[in-house]
Amino acid sequence: MPRPENRLWAYFYKGEKQNKSHFKAYCFGCIKNKAPAHIKNEPALDIKTMKNESWYKQDAGHVLGVKESMVAHILRGERPCNHASKEAKKEATIERNKLRKQGSKRGRDSEDGNTDQGEEDNTCVASSKKRQVVDLREYKQSTLDGKVFKDDVIPSAKQLSTSLLDAEYELVEEEVKQDVKDKDVVLTCDGVKDISKNSLTGVNISVETQPHLIDLYNSTPDKKDSLSMCESFEKMIDSAESIYGCRIIAMGMDNDAHQGQLILHDYLKVNPEANQTAEDATDLVGWFNNHGREIEQPLRIAALSHRDDVIAAQVGAEKNIRNASVLCSAATEHLDLINDNNFWRHLHSVVEDLEPICYTTNIFQSDRARPDVVLLAFVGLYLHFKNHTDKQLSLAMTKQLEKRWKSFDQHLLIAALILNPYKRLDHFGPDANANPFGLNSLISEISFGWLNDLGEERRKCLQSVSTAVTHYLAMTGPFQHWPEQRASWEAIHGNDPIIFWQQMTTDGRTADLAHFVLTLLSIVLNTASNERSFSDLKVKKTRLRNRLGTPKVKKMIKVGGRIRRHHYNAGLRTRCKPRKNHSEERLSTLLHVPQYAEALDGPDSDIDDDLHRRSPLVRSRREWRREFIKWAERARAEDSGDDDDNEPQASTVKVVDTLDNHPSHTMQESRFTRE
Prior knowledge:
Radius of gyration: 36 Å
Number of domains: 4
Helix content: 55-70%
Distance between the termini: 122 Å
InterPro entries: RNaseH-like_sf
Protein name: HAT C-terminal dimerisation domain-containing protein
Low-confidence stretches: 109-147, 598-619, 642-675
């Protein structure tokens, strides 16, 4: 009876013979993808009858016409062929399982053949009825009464890595499908190299700030050009929506925390003194191992009073003259650095600038980094450098931050900040051009891509959102009682805007806007969940376990994450408390973004309304002269015992105007001071 033909030939074109026994196999999917335009546009052309065509032999490529090679081409071990049909992948999976069963069966037969070594078996019995070796139960003497036996229900390592792992993985998949079904989610992806130098891509979805790993695959053979990457992203979105039944509303391509790292790089680039100070401090930390602000004085005292003892301890019992000289030079260099006042002054200045950058980076990489939170943190960092005492550094850093700002989705961040009922337009000044019509158009434009309805229903929903935004900006209609009830509401529920908009979903006038805002505020602008999955990957796949396949590692990561979540919910594990790297007093002003009303509430707020109201921050020499003159006027008024407060202010205004408009204001200032 002849051997049955390989069923995979239905998805391959049989070419000429590659050797005496096998033909060349050309994948139909690859042929269709590489076909010229005139062939793709010919619907009646049958690819199976293309005997006279030769272009596909060079463009499409071929494999050996055997079952193993054809399965490997379609499935590629871990990543399926991008152009093969679903039927071809299904058939290849069936054939691969058959091949695996045949291999495992041969392995079992070989093991069974060795089970009875050392014993003569003269009986002729079938291989399936061979006598099995019975493992004796292990036991050990215990302090308890009786003997403790090895329990039969303890699974073996093979069971844990196969059947039990697969069963738990199915439970994880069902839980994720229930959590994200019919919900708006954000998809993020990132890449990493494992211990085997394979390029792995992790795909996560985040729903209500809760991340879930949905895919981890080997992307080493994938092309990295723009069109291929676009196709990969489209397949990620289609696969997530078809398997998990969710709606992808946004896709994160980069981690906002990386922006914080790039800002740190910009700071060290534009400030050479800070870069050198950081290098010196790093070298000093490596030499002293541990130091900080609280031991600065003891270090300096020890370096000054016990200099010879420190050098002697550094050199120790080194007999080699050259090595002793090197150790002595290193100790002298570090001791001189400790005694250098300029080093500590520069170090304190650098720390003052690095602290807000690090704090911003920590905010960006949080799982609850809402768009409005990200915007306020970035603006706070911008204001820190804008008001910096070093004007050259201020100009350079603000320029770099403006470049970083261009990489953000600005409309999304601004809309999220405006729709935060605890912020609204409080941080916008008159030059921001934040008129109600422009803001309504901005929010309506963003919500247009969020709506799933078509035709008339889409227009009605968009109209409802626009009307609700108008009421929200004017604090009328369903929002008219919010200003007076805000304090009591905030005392009970805190300042979480999500709770506010969840309540507004019960009002038919604001339901559409509330659902849109809840979706907007649930967007997480980072790939921190991907980074944590990659860290777990590095723990599981090590140098000694580098033969773990990517599909199994993905299952282990997802099952391990489910076990941790259940342990946290059951109280079996305690969550790590966040580290306090910044003092509470420092946090209140670290990235503070003043509201416009705060800027108006300055010492000259009771001056005539025609005067230009200025920020209370002193940013220039002219403003410093103004403050000095007002201080002098107040001091004179107190010395003379004059109770009229308006008169000195009027004279101050007159003098300030004179100084601002007169070309020789420096001379006038000196005369005024002498008087």
